[in-house]
Amino acid sequence: MTTRGLGLDDPQRENEVLLAIIEATTSGPGVEPLAGAVARVITGATATDVCFVHVLDDTERSLTLAGATPPFDAQVGRVRLPLDTGVTGWVASHREPVVITGDKRADPRYVAIPELHGEQYTSMVSVPMESEPVGLAGVLNVHTVAHREFDDRDVRVLTAIGSLVAGALHQARMHRRLAAREEAHGRFAEQMIAAQEAERQRLARDIHDGISQRLVTLSYHLDAVATFLGRDEAAAARTDLTTASDMVLTTLDEARAAIGALRPPVLDDLGLSGALAALARGLPEVRVALDLEDRRLPEHVEVALYRIAQETLQNVLKHAGAEEVTVRLTTGSTGVRLEIADDGVGFDPAERTADRAGTDGAGYGLASVRERAELVGGSVRVTSRPGTGTTVTVTAPVDSEPFDEVSPRNT
């Protein structure tokens, strides 16, 4: 039995199909959902048995099956065809349609694809999906089990559909590339921060296990020598030993401070909110108000926000002349916000162009704050005027997974 054409001889029916295709192209930014929706519309409207939508890879050297009607939708993403291989590759390379109504194996361009069971289908039409602004986006194939006579009008209709789909597929491919780049940038930032923190931990361990331990041992020996020295004959030696002991203790304190700066243990022990509370309460002669949500965040975000708070609070001590500092930490399903406000002397941010270039001048040193925020995809806003204090607000994205229940900590 032979059937003729796509069954779209009625212009009204043809317009309905084209409108359905346009609606399918709005199914979302993803390449695969779009291609799958188009394949279903085509088979439903043309009474063909199966439709394959092959999309040009980003390398533009091969095609990938991006959409198919059941049962072949399970092969989406798995079937790849080099350009100029098989009928589909030939259509992509030559930008011309191909119609086969009988024995496909007799066509020298035909190459069997085992996953798509081409031997089960008798007739096929393959057209390039391309449009003037974007060029080739892929190849559209329809197949029928029964013998089907496809005429020039059928080819023109399918080519028009391919042209409509090409623009949407191009946009979807661009969206995918942008999303991949953003994801790669985010992973790079996380890996860089993780590498920095790993190096900080290594240095902290080296200082603790090496320099600090030797200083402690040296202090014990100095104390022992001082005990055995007589009071009269070795007064000068005792004075030198006391000075040496004092220097050892000072150096030991500095080593411990360096360890804390390299990797604050409080961040591991208490999380970000606890670490911020300890950091703020350690400010000398400054009243502290805390409003901190106690939620764990990704490690690279916690480290960045802790370093930002550390830098900002040091700037408050150096430059603000503040009597009170407020630290707030709030989180949502996809973002975190850190706000540090003081009632100090303030400044005009517009005049701090030197700070943006990486020099602190006489005001807040915000260059490193901005750099740390940008590394985790965040941003910094500074609000200040002379005589009105300063507020530094940092926002950063976090994973889209929901957080645990909020446990606010207020002081």
The number of helices is 9
Query: Which parts are unreliable, with pLDDT below 50 for 5 consecutive residues or more?
Result: 353-364, 400-411
Helix content: 40-55%
- How many domains make up the 3D coordinates? 3
Main attributes of the structure:
six-stranded antiparallel sheet, six-stranded mixed sheet, Heat Shock Protein 90, 411 residues, disordered C terminus, transferase, Beta-Lactamase, alpha+beta, HATPase_dom, 9 helices, elongated
Report on the architecture of this protein.
Helix 6 packs parallel to helix 7. It is elongated and about 115 Å long. It folds into three domains: 181 residues, Beta-Lactamase; 74 residues; 146 residues, Histidine kinase-like ATPase, C-terminal domain (Heat Shock Protein 90). The C terminus is likely disordered. The protein is an alpha+beta fold and 411 residues long. Helix content is 48%, strand content 21%. The strands form three sheets. The chain has a six-stranded antiparallel sheet with strand order 4-3-2-7-6-5. Strands 12-13-11-10-9-14 form a six-stranded mixed sheet, with helices on one face. The protein has a two-stranded parallel ribbon with strand order 1-8. Strand 6 and strand 7 form a beta hairpin.
